[in-house]
Design a protein that fits this description.
Elements: H1 13-48, H2 50-61, E1 62-67, E2 74-75, E3 81-93, H3 101-112, H4 116-128, E4 135-138, H5 143-150, E5 159-168, H6 176-179, E6 182-183, H7 187-193, E7 205-206, H8 209-213, H9 215-218, E8 223-229, E9 235-242, E10 250-251, H10 256-265, E11 270-277, E12 283-289, H11 294-299, H12 303-311, H13 320-323, H14 333-342, E13 351-353, E14 356-359, E15 362-365, E16 373-375, H15 377-382, H16 386-396, H17 398-407, H18 429-436, H19 442-448, H20 459-471, H21 495-510, E17 528-534, H22 541-546, E18 561-568, E19 575-582, H23 593-602, H24 607-621, H25 625-643, H26 652-660
Parallel strand pairs: 2-10
Antiparallel strand pairs: 1-8, 2-3, 3-4, 3-5, 6-7, 8-9, 11-12, 11-19, 13-16, 14-15, 17-18, 18-19
Subcellular location: Cell membrane; Membrane
Protein name: Penicillin binding protein 2
GO molecular function, one term: peptidoglycan L,D-transpeptidase activity
């Protein structure tokens, strides 16, 4: 077998030179391409992305911090501050920057002398807070405390001391439900708005009331501060600062002095008082008490104080003016009388009151067991005779009464800058059929005509009703001073009829009627009004036969509501008032709705005299609302400590004494004689 020999390649100097040159070209090409790529990348970085890397470099050397804008003031009609700002040194924790939370909190507790309750709050909020949301450690610090933390920042990662402004409410609890409060933005609010200002330590937004409604207007534009820092974050020097731009000032129709007086004059009661300007509907005061101190909420309310407020049977966390609904009781009788006049009933026509009337198979009573005898419209309103209205209302029917009720503001929805309102009910046959699928009955009319049954109202609507009866115009409540509004329309009642109603309302207070306690002790100033009592429980025939229990002997929640609405001066109405004392029961004359209204209105005519009287009365109530709240908080804290075994049980007596220190002895009230006494069948009152 013969093998084929491969041809031997002959290597010459020329072939070697050619091979080397080819390889060199490939390698050189690769090197050149790589060099061009590096050069291009360097050019991209140094030229095209010069600004980006300059900023990154600068950020390693310089920290940019947002300065929260100062919140705009809320002032009253005379320029007095209702909500302003005060200089504040504070310390916050940024959760995502904290390395050793326990050690950091321990060091801050020593530096700032924090109480155990505050330390517990900080730990709890730190655990629950998202990494981006600051946790407040303390505010309102002295400069020495602020400086002590600032010089130790390298050893306290995540700690953010700041100097800024905090919200302050000079009137405290008296404006709690009117203005609301501010607080740090929640995670949900941050996710919705994606605004870095919301997570800036010290920045707060409106959470309730007018603070929330006008949050956009009150929030200014943030400033900024550039500081040079070391690699560890220690401040070397401050470079530049751009000041913040404060928010706009909101000027309200509220009279600051009157607002605070109204809140204090409600004393220890649970209720509300509203005062309107009869010329244009401006709200001069809107107090709901007891209330919370918005300063506490804005600073971060403690668990203990929140627990105390939420368990209080006087419900201080509810805005009774706008969210509370109550049967209006006999305060609707002037409105019902106006409907009677419109239907053709003559004011001199009389009805015999024998103390009770039978409607169907039900016996309806008047508050005066022996009856009033023959009464006309004026006497029926002045003496609050139920029988007169029982009989007359059946003649004209509920549709006419409901129409007049709506025209004077009952059940009406007002365009107000408040996020939550309750509007009440004006019942009529169509309403009952739609809501319950039942036809209207005569006893429904009888109940409604004395402000019971399905009828419900809030204190603001009651004040509006008084203003419309006083002026004959459909005034609308307003909170912004000098706001543009259309001229109010007429309520559709003749002036002659309105004169009859106003005269009868004057007789309630000044003519021996049920509202004598509302007389104003100022020469030449006569108050016209109407008292009311709204029943909250059913009185059975058995109880009526054995003697109806007085409100003073009943538990708080079973007592009747006490009400009053009116206007002043009688002959030239300037101010209207509506007041509801929740479960007041007319057991304390001084703290009853008529006298509260009279004293509050008297402040508008003689502030000095009104304040002297109030200060005297407050000595018997345990001091101002702030003093009573502080005493209540101390007693609640002590009782909780006793429950936990932190103090001896023998201290329980001290807690009880402190809690009761603000409660004055009840002063028997004069009979106002307008309590709507239901029969043995249900009246529909709540």
């Amino acid at each position: 077998m013969k093998f084929i020999r491969s041809k031997r390649k002959i290597v010459t100097e020329a072939t070697q030179t050619f091979t080397f040159t080819r390889r060199a070209m490939v390698v050189g090409g690769l090197q050149g391409a790589f060099g061009l790529m590096l050069a291009g990348r360097m050019a991209w970085i140094s030229v095209a992305q010069n600004e980006k890397y300059n900023l990154l470099s600068e950020s390693n050397r310089v920290n940019l911090t947002l300065i929260p804008p100062r919140r705009g003031w809320i002032i009253d009609r005379n320029g007095r501050p209702l909500a302003n700002n005060r200089t504040d040194f504070r310390v916050d924790l940024i959760p995502e920057r904290v390395k050793d939370a326990d050690a950091t909190i321990r060091n801050l507790a020593e530096l700032l002398a924090l109480e155990a309750e505050e330390i517990e709050r900080i730990k709890e909020e730190l655990e629950k807070s998202p990494g981006f949301r600051p946790v407040q450690v303390a505010d309102k610090l002295s400069y020495d405390q602020y400086a002590a933390v600032s010089v130790r920042l390298p050893d306290l990662p995540g700690v953010a001391p700041s100097q800024g402004f905090s919200r302050y409410y000079p009137a405290g609890a008296s404006v709690g439900h009117l203005l609301g409060y501010v607080g740090a933005a929640s995670a949900k609010e941050y996710e919705e708005r994606k605004n870095p200002l919301l997570i800036t330590p010290g920045f707060k937004i409106g959470k309730d009331g007018l603070e929330r409604a006008f949050d956009k207007e009150l929030t200014g534009k943030p400033g900024a501060k550039r500081v040079e820092v070391t690699a560890r974050g220690k401040i070397v020097r401050e470079l530049t600062t751009r000041p913040d731009i404060p928010g706009n000032t909101i000027r309200l129709t509220i009279d600051a002095g009157l607002q605070e007086y109204a809140g204090r004059r409600l004393a220890t009661q649970s209720g509300s008082v509203v005062i309107l300007d009869c010329r244009n509907g401006d709200v001069l005061a809107m107090a709901s008490m007891p209330s919370f101190d918005p300063n506490s909420f804005s600073d971060g309310i403690s668990h203990l104080e929140w627990d105390m407020l939420s368990k209080d049977d006087h419900v201080p966390l509810r805005n009774k003016t706008l969210q509370g609904l109550y049967p209006p009781g006999s305060t609707v009788k002037p409105m019902v009388a106006l409907a009677l006049l419109e239907a053709g009933v003559h004011p001199s026509e009389t009805v015999g009151c024998a103390g009770a009337i039978r409607v169907g198979n039900t016996l309806f009573h008047c508050h005066k067991r022996r009856g009033h005898g023959a009464v006309n419209m004026r006497t029926a309103i002045a003496q609050s005779c139920d029988i007169y209205f029982y009989q007359m209302a059946q003649r004209i029917g509920m549709d006419r009464i409901a129409s007049m009720a709506r025209r004077v503001g009952m059940g009406q929805k007002f365009d107000l800058p408040f996020p939550s309102q309750s509007y009440g009910t004006v019942p009529d046959p169509a309403w009952k059929l739609k809501k319950y699928g039942q036809s209207w009955q005569v006893y429904d009319t009888v109940n409604a005509t004395i402000g019971q049954g399905y009828m419900l109202i809030n204190p603001l609507q009651m004040a509006v009703m008084a203003a419309r009866l006083a002026t004959g115009r459909q005034l609308m409540p307003n909170f912004i001073l000098d706001a543009e509004r259309p001229a109010p329309e007429s309520v559709g009642a003749s002036e002659d009829h309105l004169v009859v109603i106003r005269d009868a309302m004057s007789a309630v207070v000044n003519g021996g009627g049920t509202g004598g306690a509302a007389r104003i002790n100022i020469p030449g100033v006569l108050l016209a009004g109407k008292t009311g009592t709204a029943q909250v429980r059913r009185i059975t025939m058995a109880e009526r036969a054995g003697g109806v229990r007085g409100n003073a002997s009943l538990p708080f929640k079973l007592r009747d509501h006490a009400l009053f609405q009116g206007f002043v001066p009688f002959d030239n109405p300037r101010y209207a008032v509506g007041c509801i004392i929740e479960h007041g029961g007319h057991v304390n004359r001084i703290e009853d709705a008529p006298m509260i209204c009279a004293d509050t209105l008297s402040y508008l005519f003689d502030p000095k005299k009104a304040m002297e009287k109030l200060e005297t009365l407050e000595k018997g109530w345990g001091g101002t609302p702030a003093e009573r709240l502080a005493r209540q908080t101390a007693a609640f804290r002590l009782s909780k400590a006793i429950e936990k075994g932190e103090v001896p049980a023998s201290a329980a007596g001290n807690a009880t004494q402190a809690a009761n220190a603000a409660a004055p002895a009840a002063t028997p009230a004069e009979e106002d004689g307008d309590a709507p006494p239901p029969a043995s069948s249900p009246t529909g009152a709540p």
